[in-house]
Design brief:
By secondary structure, the chain is mostly helical. The protein has helices spanning 8-22, 33-56, 60-82, 91-113, 119-148, 158-167, 169-204, 206-220, 224-235, 239-262, 267-275, 280-314, 324-333, 337-365, 370-376.
Length: 377
């Protein structure tokens, strides 16, 4: 056993467990005190055993595995123990929750320091670390809202949101189809494509470049809550007006980034192309567009989130009785906050998937770029 491997997170977790042991019971209810004492003892034992075993391990991966089991096992016991006794948690409950979180923190720190050799292990770690981080956001959210008795209308626990999602799948599917598969995708494709084409024209025609870019900066500063009702008046209450808002929001980021990317190639490379008697279009496709690819994909990634935000906000100002923005504005008026959070969760998941697909395409097509090669190292 090497005590030099004992980290401050593990040491602090042990101190919190010692303090919790002297201040039990975990719950305020007298009837629940024996049960809470038993749960507290199990959690303290699990945290202490995991902490001691983690710095006794010689392998970093084994130490991380022990901490992972201890942290998540303790969190599960705490949440299970508070079930049915919401709002009755005392200080030991929160101390033990903090101790479990510290073990998870140490687990992620060890995983981040690992240097696996195989590509499969690298990919697994790249997915596992953010998954643990995200899971603990939900765990802390669940445990704190239940333990502190946070009113449901202020912040429902993730379990209630997940239950609402499971019970409202047909409604959520119809909203996703209306907002994402109609307004967002159409507006995103048209806005990005038109911004790219106009950027090529602006690069070719100097007066367009000098005239459009200042206008682009001005239009980018327009408030969406001012543009959305105008688009509804022009194009009606169906998805076309939401797509128009998305086009406006995605056009100018693509225009500005593409113009900047086309100017990124160096003078030496352009002079070399001229010595080969290359035409404008040959230089564009073989030198300047490849050099501009990171800028173009940067605009695509920015627009992947802007498009979803624009479509949802635009639905607040007039839409049929379907759509993610319509559902949020309607259900918040009815105080159905779990449904509002369900729509937010679905929107966040859809936006993350959208962004991830664009990022994956970027890595597959710009693998030669130093930024991508550096990211894989």
């Amino acid at each position: 056993m090497s005590f030099s491997r004992l980290s401050w997170q593990v040491a602090l977790a042990l101190v919190l467990c010692a303090v919790a042991m002297t201040t039990m019971p975990m719950l305020a209810a007298e009837a629940a005190a024996p049960m809470s004492n038993g749960t507290s003892t199990l959690v303290i034992g699990l945290v202490a055993l995991s902490a001691v075993a983690s710095f006794a391990m010689f392998s970093g991966a084994a130490s991380a595995a022990v901490l992972f089991i201890g942290a998540h096992g303790a969190a599960w016991l705490l949440i299970a123990g508070i079930s049915g006794n919401e709002g009755m948690a005392r200080m030991p409950y929160f101390l033990l929750l903090a101790a479990a979180w510290l073990l998870a923190w140490r687990c992620v720190a060890i995983l981040s320091a690992l240097k696996p050799q195989s590509p499969q292990a690298k990919t697994f770690l790249r997915l596992l670390i953010p998954a643990i981080f995200g899971a603990w956001i939900l765990i802390l959210w669940e445990a704190v809202t239940r333990g502190a008795g946070v009113p449901f209308i202020l912040l429902p626990p993730p379990s209630a949101i997940a239950a609402r999602i499971g019970n409202s799948l047909p409604i959520l599917a119809a909203d996703v189809r209306q907002t994402i598969f109609k307004a967002v995708l159409f507006g995103y494709i048209v806005g990005c494509a038109s911004g790219f084409v106009v950027a090529i024209l602006a690069d070719r025609v100097p007066f367009l470049r000098r005239g459009l870019l200042p206008i682009g900066n001005m239009v980018s500063a327009l408030p969406i809550i001012g543009v959305a009702p105008i688009m509804v008046i022009w194009f009606g209450f169906e998805w076309q007006s939401k797509a128009a808002v998305v086009i406006i929001m995605t056009f100018f980021p693509m225009l500005v980034n593409t113009v900047a990317g086309l100017a990124a190639s160096g003078h030496m490379e352009r002079d070399l192309m001229r010595t080969y008697a290359s035409s404008y279009w040959q230089t564009l496709f073989k030198l300047r567009l490849p050099a501009a690819a990171p800028f173009i994909f940067n605009a695509l990634k920015i627009n992947s989130t802007l498009a979803l935000i624009g479509a949802i906000v635009a639905e607040f100002f007039g839409t049929p009785i379907v759509g993610m923005g319509f559902r949020i504005s309607t259900e918040i008026g009815r105080m159905n906050v779990d449904m509002v959070w369900a729509e937010i969760a679905v929107a966040a998941l859809a936006g993350s998937v959208f962004y991830g697909v664009v990022a994956f395409i970027e890595r597959a097509t710009t693998f030669w770029h130093p930024s991508v090669r550096g990211g894989r190292a």
